[in-house]
Design a protein that fits this description.
Chains A, B: Its EC number is 2.7.1.4. The structure is a homodimer. By secondary structure, chain A is α/β, with parallel strands linked by helices. In chain A, 37% of the residues lie in helices and 19% in strands. Chain A contains ten helices and ten strands.
Chain lengths: 299, 299
């Protein structure tokens, strides 16, 4: 079908071609300036386009980014600490080179779409996709569609109840101990006595980390009532015991309030991704497929 | 058009007839047992039906209640402390008496629908409706439709960051100091030195209450990115200074993270309802109108 996906990340940009079912080929570029990075990506897409026409392009971008399709600045990066990227007109730069339908959403909303279509979120039209790595981000689907609203969710920066006695100040430059400042990679380096990979899964130093993750999950359950919460990213992938810890703590935090939910319920609700690091680029292909369908008037 | 709405509340049940534009007539019953309360409501609807055929019925119910239309127990009250109501098959009891289309959602989701259609949420397809009264509840619209998911949001029971130095234990029987346990009516009676109505709006004892509300609003903004947050209910109506306090504190909690938002932005974002206590029954009429449209295959 000739779809192209661009996952625009903070350190690298992955460009793939394929169809709604998956990735056929990928090329990776370092994320430098918008002109350098998107220039290289668009040159690659032009090469593919010369071989076989590109029908649509989807972009899964780091945020904050304007995702409202009706906005004049749809597809523009908003105020970001990343040098050179504030105000970068990502969608417009792609449209300037290619006349096909183009759509853009956040990287985490795109990953949520991919996990819903092909991965751990199949059958769950209301789901949350969390990534815990260098930062913490969350994508939200309601009835199978990404939640936008005023901007888009910024779940990484919610302030949650701290564990009793935990005085770690957090490392978020904006908020200190918001959830990203407590459990993303840089926070773990700051709060753990040794490097995270050197700390055994049973070490008690993981207790407050598991607690903080559980507070986030309980809060998401009470606010969004998701059918699934998929947790990926480098930290979650390397520390699978964190999901197990959170699954045990969440029911205690809810204190029996939500409908009877046993261990099997939480085991199914809170799970790792099925697509691994491919969720982002596959999500970009999902966005391309949807852009094509929209252009053709299909649902 | 002959629509009927039932707002089933914890202490009273309001039955209205009207059309999608508003309420023409209302009758109020005390909430006793399901048989007594719904029996009286259905007898009233039968009287109206004899005068002019009822085309559809919408029910805005207290929760927790099954709102998933595909579920076998759609419209059944789930586990509740309210005597006699756990397992009450509200929707089925209405359908037993009337053959017309019937739909049910939570009281707060219905109120959100009404404020979106006729009130303070016009033009805001992604919004949150909060009611702070005897309890604290929240309805959520995404793209104009109520959020359901696994069950439905239970925003009243989120656990938030406490204000520094505030040691009030909260009064929620499940969670102690969840947000309902901190700022709903019974919590105010427990935590304030005098009755809430006797405490002047500038009293410093309101400070932690305003803080707790602000924490909730910041959390909702980061998780749902709503275009509007409408706050009604007895406590909010009688203490309008709480909204003003929260509007000042929320930007400090966000610490400049969300896109540039000045005082005017927060003034528009956080607002009282336009429909007052009619949001619930008007929401029930919105549900009836949607049930009729669904039955006729209209969008």
């Amino acid at each position: 079908m000739g779809l192209v996906g661009i996952e625009l990340g903070g350190t690298k940009c992955i460009v793939v071609r394929g169809d709604a079912a998956g990735i056929a080929e990928r090329v990776v570029f370092a994320t430098l300036t918008p002109e350098q990075t998107l220039g290289a990506a668009l040159d690659q897409i032009a090469l593919w386009h010369a071989e076989a026409p590109v029908a649509a392009i989807g972009i899964a971008s780091f945020g904050p980014v304007r995702v409202n399709r009706q906005a004049a600045d749809y597809g523009t990066i908003l105020n970001t600490p990343k040098p050179g990227w504030s105000g970068a007109e990502v969608l417009a730069m792609v449209r300037e080179r290619f006349a096909c339908p183009v759509a853009l959403d956040t990287d985490v909303n795109a990953a949520a779409l991919a996990e819903h279509a092909h991965g751990a979120g199949q059958g769950c039209a209301n789901l949350v996709y969390l990534t815990i790595g260098t930062g913490l981000g969350g994508g939200v689907l309601v009835e199978g569609r990404p939640v936008h609203g005023s901007m888009h969710p910024e779940i990484g920066h919610v302030r949650l109840r701290r564990a009793a006695g935990d005085v770690f100040a957090g490392v978020c430059p904006f908020h200190g101990d918001c959830i990203e400042g407590l459990i993303a990679g840089p926070a773990l380096i700051a709060r753990l006595p040794v490097a995270p990979v050197e700390l055994g899964p049973d070490a008690p130093e993981w207790d407050p980390v598991g607690h903080d993750l559980a507070e986030l999950l309980a809060q998401l359950m009470l606010t969004l009532s998701p059918q699934r919460i998929i947790i990926g990213g480098g930290v979650a992938n390397r520390q699978p015991h964190l999901l197990a810890r959170a699954r045990k703590i969440v029911p205690k935090l809810l204190a029996g309030y939500l409908e009877p939910a046993d261990a099997a319920y939480f085991e199914a609700l809170i799970c790792p991704p099925a697509l691994g690091d491919d969720a982002g680029p596959m999500g970009a292909l999902c966005l391309a497929a949807q852009a094509l369908a929209d252009a053709q008037g299909r649902p």
